[in-house]
Amino acid sequence: MNIYRKEILMFDNDEQVNFCVVLNDEEQYSIWPQERDLPNGWRAEGKTGTRQECLDYIGEVWTDMRPQSLRRWMQENAS
Prior knowledge:
Layout: H1 3-12, E1 19-24, E2 29-33, E3 42-49, H2 51-61, H3 68-76
Antiparallel strand pairs: 1-2, 1-3
């Protein structure tokens, strides 16, 4: 098991870890441990909390799973 997988499992099992909701340029959501630097291409969305609080928030706000580029293409090519 690589070190990154171990870290993910550690964060997954610890509700005391604070997470932040992150968003990429395609308007896709994820969560990230708050004390870690954000990965390239992602920005903080503004919501922080426990893992479950952040996942619940994403469940409320991410209602269209299509990437932004696909939504844009579909809108531009609608008949």
